[in-house]
Amino acid sequence: MKQWIDRLRWERTLRPEEFRQLLTECDAELLRYINKQAQEVSLLHFGNKIYIRGLIEISNCCRNNCYYCGIRKGNPNIERYRLTQESILDCCKQGYESGFRTFVLQGGEDPVLTDDKIERIVTNIRQEYPDCAITLSLGEKSRNTYERFFKAGANRYLLRHETYNEAHYQQLHPAEMSGKRRLQCLQDLKDIGYQTGTGIMVGSPGQTVEDIIEDILFIERLRPEMIGIGPFLPHHDTPFAQCPSGTVAQTVLLLSIFRLMHPSALIPATTALATLASDGRERGILAGANVVMPNLSPREERKKYELYNDKASLGAESAEGLIALQKQLNAIGYEISTERGDFIQYTTDY
Ligand code: SAM
């Protein structure tokens, strides 16, 4: 299968049955090989620099009831919070002083955070920090709303499609949610001009190899600028509390497949991967990831944004832990980049 991995690197795709075999029969030696190839591609494009994004979790209130998510509407056991505009701007200030040049505003689909409010927040951040990128990750909105946020100064949007297969989508979400609507949102975001991110949870309940192949082929067609791949991790207060986590091996295999298929994409080593394994962040980077997203949220709220059990938000996962992060990265030959780190299409053949 090594030849397939070489071909994936040069031709940036494989046939579905080749993906199937790679996903089901990848042993430790082959995993090391594909991780190495993907790391090489990442080093060729980005050097040994890792972009940092300051993650601000603006609200854990959500109108949706996704079966996997700890902040789902139907979880009565979490203390809900919503940051004020002042608090969000304060997070940006602290982040800016620490060297962050991208702020990611993420949250549940909170009806109290109206379009007007978000637009105002984006406008104010844009005014205050003209040299920074603003990334939003606030779920599904109308095209008109996405346009308003874009005009107010947002540059990027993260919206994982979670799974391309509609039947699998329905296993993960209640009937009122629709995979098609989510895909339409992604198309709208791309059309408007956002640097758009999508992705999946690896090992989500009911996920089959066929589903993953559909995800790979969908992402190949969409050509997103950012690709978020992290393991599914159970949360104790959700219908999936007893479901097993995704694995590190499958996650880093997929990270490498996506890096080889999308050499220019911005791909984070996710917090979920760092939560699953103590060396998860490093394994992600050594498999081709080039972004990390330390937590900039106020410390007293962080524990309340619990998407899954034991979500990491301290140490190297936190903005105040940048020195620890720098050390961890140095130990594997990498450095933090404080550049904005926009998407640039890589044109050189190699
Ligand atoms: N509401 C926005 C949305 O739907 O895109 C943003 C917030 S949502 C909590 C962000 C991401 O968290 C989701 O796209 C999902 O992939 C991830 N997530 C939620 N629950 C998770 C879990 N149990 N394990 C791993 N990732 C999870």
Gist?
The chain contains 14 helices and nine strands.
Please describe what this structure looks like:
- This protein is an alpha/beta fold.
- The protein has one domain: TIM Barrel (Alpha-Beta Barrel), CATH 3.20.20.
- 43% of the residues lie in helices and 12% in strands.
- The protein contains 14 helices and nine strands.
- It has a six-stranded parallel beta sheet with strand order 2-3-4-5-6-7.
- It is globular.
- The site of S-adenosylmethionine has 19 residues, from loops.
- [4Fe-4S] cluster binds at residues 62, 66, 69.
- One of its GO terms (biological process) is sulfur compound biosynthetic process.
- Keywords: 4Fe-4S, Iron, Iron-sulfur, Metal-binding, S-adenosyl-L-methionine.
- It comes from Bacteroides finegoldii.
- GO terms for molecular function: 4 iron, 4 sulfur cluster binding; metal ion binding; transferase activity.
